[in-house]
Structures are given as C-alpha cells and as structure tokens.
Amino acid sequence: MMHEILHSDQDKGDGSLKYILSGDGAGDLFIINENTGDIQATKRLDREEKPVYILRAQAVNRKTGRPVEPESEFIIKIHDINDNEPMFTKDVYNASIPEMSDVGTFVVQVTATDADDPTYGNSAKVVYSILQGQPYFSVESETGIIKTALLNMDRENREQYQVVIQAKDMGGQMGGLSGTTTVNITLTDVNDNPPRFPQSTYQFRAPESMPLDSPVGRIKANDADMDENAEIEYSITEGDGYDMFGITTDKDTQEGIITVKKALDFENKNLYILKVEAANTHVDPRFLYLGPFKDSATVRIQVEDVDEPPVFSRPAYIMEVKEDVPINSVIGTVTAQDPDAPRNPVKYSVDRHTDMDRVFNINSGNGSIFTSKPLDRETLLWHNITVIAAEINNPKQSSRVPVFIKVLDVNDNAPEFAMFYETFVCENAKAEQLIQTLSAVDKDDSYNGHQFSFSLAPEAASSSNFTLQDNRDNTAGIFTRKTRYNRHEASTYFLPVVISDNDYPIQSSTETVTIRVCACDHRGKMLSCNAEALVHPTGLSTGALIAILLCIIILLVTVVLFAALRRQRKKEPLIISKEDIRDNIVSYNDEGGGEEDTQAFDIGTLRNPEAIDDNKLRRDIVPETLFIPRRTATARDNTDVRDFINQRLKENDTDPTAPPYDSLATYAYEGNGSVAESLSSLESVTTDGDQDYDYLSDWGPRFKKLADMYGSMDSDKDS
Fold first, then answer.
1. What distance in Å separates the CA atoms of residue 512 and residue 257, rounded to the nearest whole number?
2. Identical fold, 5-77 and 201-304
3. How far apart (Å, rounded) are the C-alpha atoms in residues 716 and 719?
4. What Pfam family does this protein match (any one) (predicted)?
5. Which DSSP category does 465 fall into?
C-alpha cells in the first residue's frame, strides 16, 4: 500500500488550509486527506496495466478557496515485481519432419512471452526446457528451437510424438514462474523400405479354354511405406511362359494381376514356370545403401485340360470350280480334328442357313465338298458357305469355318445384241448408205476381252436388200444394197444377223433387226411410215400408257361427281332468308299439270270435304314439311266453291289453335284477283307478249326469291 504526505509551508496546523489532489487516478485510485495532506492508494497497483501516474496537488484557503501557493506536480512510478508467468503464443504446436532425419534436424520453434518488466531484474528473462519427449527431441534453452536428438527415427516403428516444453522466468532460477505448451510431432514417410513378397513361390491353375486377357491370379509384395513410396510395378523377368502370360499392377491394391496373352493348349504344354519381380517406382537415392528396392518370386501355372471343339486346319478355305462341272463333283476338302488327347472322331456338315438352295453338300466322314445342283457363274459368282465340324461322341463340341467357293467361267452363253434394234430406211435412200450400227454383249467372262464377229444369216446373205459390214471392233453396220425402196411393195424387212464369239467352244446366236420403209424429206428426216406405229426406244412403255389411261378415267369420274353435287345444291327452297323465321310454306317444287292432272290434286275434294282422309298425302311428290290436319265443320252439298273458301278463311282467322305466326293456307281457288294481279304462271303462256316482273323487286325481301327467278328468266330470253 503506497503512503505519501503532502505538506505546505503555509500550514500552521489550525485547519485553515485544505489539500486538493488531481491527475491520473485522483479520487479513484489515489485519495488525499484534505486536512493533513496524506496521499494513499485505494487498491493494488499493476505495472503491467499502467507503469506511471502523474498527479497534481495544491493547498487552498478553506474559507475563500483561494490557493495559498502554486500547484505542485509529482510522478508516481510503479516498480515491477515477478507476478506474471511466461505465456506461449500457441497452446498446441503441430510439426512434422521426415523419418530417418539426422540428429539436430530443425523441427519447430516455440515462443513464450513474459509481461513483467524486462529492464528490471530477471522477471522477464525466459528459459526453455523439455519436460517430455526425450531422448527423441531437444530444445534450445534461449531460442525455443526444437531439434531431433535421436538418429534414424523410423516412421514404421513410431509415427506420432508428443513433446512438452516449459518456459520459466527469472532465468530459470528457483522461485521463477513457468508455463508449458504441447508440441505434436509427426514423422512423414520416406521410401526406406523395399517391397517384399511374403512367400517365394505361388501356384495357380488355368483351364486351357481361358480367353485371352483373362486373369489367372493375383500376387502382392508388401511395402511398409505409404502413398507413392509404396507404389510397385510388377514384371515377368524370365521363365518358359515369358511370352504366354503378362502381368499388370492394380493401382488401388498394388497387386500384380497375371493374365493370359496367348491361347493355352494342355496337349502342347501343361505347366509354366515364371519369375515375377516387384520393384518400387519411386526410389530415394539416400537409402540405396539399405539394399535393392525390389524383390522376386516364382509363379507356377498349371494348365488344366478341357474338352475342346474340333480345330480346322485353316481359319478359312477358298475353292474354285468350273460352272459346267457335273453334279456330285468334288470341289475341295476341309479338315478338322479333336485337339484333346482322346482324338475323338469328327463329323462334318454344311450350315444350311448359308446354303439355302442346297447347291453343295459335304461328306460327313472325310470333309469333301461336292456339288448337288448345277452351277451358273452368270447367276452367282461366289458361294459363301459355312462348314460345321462336331465331335461324334459330344455333338455340342463343334466349330465352324467359312468356305468361299468361286465359280469359274465357261463359254456357255452366246453373244446377243446390246439392245433391241428397230430402225428405218428412207424410200429415197441411196445404195451403200449406213442406216444402223450394231453392237453385242456376252454374259460370259473373257480374260483377253470379247471379240465378236457379225454376218448375215445364210438364207438372207444373197437375197437381202441390205448388206452387213463387220467393223472388227465388236460392232457392225447395216448398209442399203439398192437405191430406192417402196413402202407400198414392202413396208417392213426382217434382217437376220449371226453373232459369234472367239472363245472355246464357239457360241453364236441369230438376232433379228427390224427395218421399216418410211417416207423422208431430202435431208433424210423421216416423215411417215406405214399405218403401224414405229416404236422408238424413247417411246412410252405399256405400263406407262396404262397408268395415264387410269389417271384420265379417275379425272372424268371426279368431274361427273362434282357436277352432280353442284346440281343437287341448286335445289333450294323458295324462301331462303334467315332473317324471318315466321313463314312456314310447304314447298313441293312442282308446278302441276293443270286440270288434266288428276294425280296432283283432286278438285272433287273441294266439293266433298267429307272425303278428306286425315293421313292422306299427295301421291306424286314428297312434301318437305308435314302438317297435322285440322278438323273443320262439314259444308253443305250445294255449297259453292267460293262459299267454301270463305268459310275456311273464317275458320282459320278464328281458330285458337292456329300458329302464332304467319302461315299460308292454300284452298286451290284463286278468287276475284288482287291489286297486284295474278302471280300464277299458268296464264302467262296464253299471252303473246313478254311479261315485265321488275315490280317484284319493290315488294320487299319476302318476294326477293320470285324477283330473282323471274328476273333471270327475262335476262335469259334477252340473251
């Protein structure tokens, strides 16, 4: 506890003066006795918080408050004591070093700080020491640097180390304060361990039917290292199966996978001995003194026998046969045998899916292929069939081989015209005039090229009106023999031409050239021939003519149907206005036949209304709308037609069941006439002059149809 006394020379001890304190911490951390001037600290002072305080004190008259002397300033310095222990910058340190490092290899540096005054005594002087981690590591006392202290620390033996470091002040002397920290040290891997096979010999079994690249087995060499330092590459260094097997590395498991490179054959060799080597891919030269970083082992592979299908002597067979060979002629032989030790007998057959026409057959015992049908090179040059060889004791064991049979050509086809020749000769043709050039083709094959000869048939050579000249280039020309021709004497000539080849045996054919006699102009252009049409190569075929004829018939039927539909659409009711739906007119579309027509209407019904049948309709036409007849009172026998109609008119006007819209009641009686005169067309035939119906257009929309009908009649008459 700090205690200071402030005293003024003016203080006589009578209490007339009062002491006042101001500055850092005045009234809080420091207080003053206003009567005596004693200054005291109210709490413990910490140098690490504030090492210096500046205070000001003054004596004043208690009554007047006026200072009796100038203000005094004084500085309070806090002296340090060792009250803070060293503190490390981290609670836990993590570090790593490679395994097998030399002694004194730097690991990590730790740092501790002391809050005490480093300029006052040894309170802030820190010294480092190791509490845990010996004899593997050491620490420099002044710098805090941790180093290795043991040679050849091996990660494979121990990977993690925990070191405890102490920092102590007062220079490490007794009574100093201390702090500790933990350092976790990990040894990283280096390639200091070579791969090692756990056993010197491995044995595997492989069936001889194993496909190529199939795995036979796996081997693995152990490596105590990790990651890339443990990567291994396997190889076959020697052995009698060096070229029969291969080995690859599984990157995930670091195993060596032995695979088949060539087909195995138990009958040929049933045991293979290999030497396999495993070597690290990343070798550290610093540790080569530990020995070679590779190891080897022996692998024995036993080939197992399986029942194999027969094996053909060739992968494919090619045979040739002339197209004129007789049926059942042998064209070649295929051979297959059972590769297994028992050498089971083999049976041959032809896959009929490859020889649907059964052109060939095979001897099931010796494999000889022979023909069963005639051959024709011009129809099919190559026959590709498949032969099956199966064991007799086990037919499921079978194999196939393709056989390609080429049919060789024989001169068995005569040459013929390259096209159908039909030409013409002009009546005014001159002698020795070329009218047609002929060419020929031959279906047979010729190694040296075809050579055709042309000549007229013997029966036409002397009597023909034309001559034939062989051009010696597989063409020939037809020439006129005389000057003029008359189509009325002979309109058509048929010229037989003999075409021969030069192969053996010689083949020839007789072809006919049709020559028509036609009228031509002076330039030789054809004008006309006989009545029979001259068919040119560019003419239409029969199929094309039939197609054109069918199109014309379909077009005519379409036009007729269209005209019929148009005529049917013209039959419309008299009134077609959609605006007025009240009118209900029964239209029969029939003008009637006058008084002579007894079928259309019976005038006697007007005289005898009782004869009306409720369900009787007109017999000659079908009405568009049916009305339910209404019963009316019976008229007297002597009733006049006019009275009858008036009676019916009155009944309709007073009928409560009449429809609430305009309707037309027909009584077959015209009456005395109307102001509009008669609209009937019956009287119009008795007049000599033409009627003018233009006034119908003035009667409104209800008579528009009549105006259009009769107006059109007038226009027709004018036209």
1. 80
2. yes
3. 5
4. CADH_Y-type_LIR
5. S
Q: Strands 382-391, 346-350: parallel, antiparallel or unpaired by DSSP?
A: antiparallel
CA–CA distance, 330 with 368 (Å, rounded to integer): 7
Q: What is the pLDDT of residues 473-495, one digit of tens each?
A: 989 999 998 888 888 888 899 99
pLDDT of 538? 41
By CB atoms closer than 10 A (0-12, 13-18, 19+), residue 91 is: exposed
Prediction pTM value: 0.45
- For residue 288, the SS3 value is helix
Confidence check: pLDDT of 256 > 80? yes
Superfamily per CATH, domain 201-304? Cadherins (2.60.40.60)
> DSSP secondary structure string, 301-331?
EEEEP--PPPEESSS-EEEEEETTPPTT-EE
CA 464: distance to chain centroid?
Answer: 72
Considering only residues 115 and 311, tell me which one the structure prediction assigns the higher pLDDT: 311
Instruction: Please list, in sequence order, all residues whose beta carbon lies within 8 angstroms of the beta carbon of residue 90, skipping any fewer than 6 positions away.
Output: 110, 181
Tokens of 612: 């009306």
From the list 149, 62, 146, 153, the residue with the least C-alpha distance to 100 is 153
CB-based contacts of 589-597 (< 8 A; 24+ apart in sequence): 589/621, 590/620, 590/621, 591/681, 594/682
557-567 burial code (b ≥16 CB/10 A, e <16): eeeeeeeeeee
Question: What is the fold of 87-188?
Answer: Immunoglobulin-like (2.60.40)
Q: Is the pLDDT of residue 249 over 90?
A: yes
Q: What value does the mean pLDDT take over residues 6-25?
A: 74
- Could you give the CA distance from residue 329 to residue 371 in angstroms, rounded to a whole number? 6
Q: How confident is the model at residue 259 (pLDDT cuts 50, 70, 90)?
A: very high
Which residues have CB under 8 Å from 314's CB, separation 6+?
Answer: 334, 401
CATH number of 416-528: 2.60.40.60
**pLDDT surpasses 90 at 196:** yes
Q: Determine whether domain 5-77 maps to CATH 2.60.40.60.
A: yes
State the pairing for strand pair 526-528/508-520.
antiparallel
Indicate whether 589 pLDDT > 80: no
> Which of the 8 DSSP states describes residue 629?
-
Average pLDDT for the chain: 81
Q: What is the CATH number of domain 311-408?
A: 2.60.40.60
Question: In the chain, what are the domain boundaries?
Answer: 5-77, 87-188, 201-304, 311-408, 416-528
Quick one: which of 432, 439, 398 has its CA closest to 416? 439
| The length of the chain, given as a count of residues | 719
Whether the per-residue pLDDT at 447 is higher than 80: the answer is: no
Considering only CA atoms, which of 36, 192, 226, 204 is closest in space to residue 100?
192
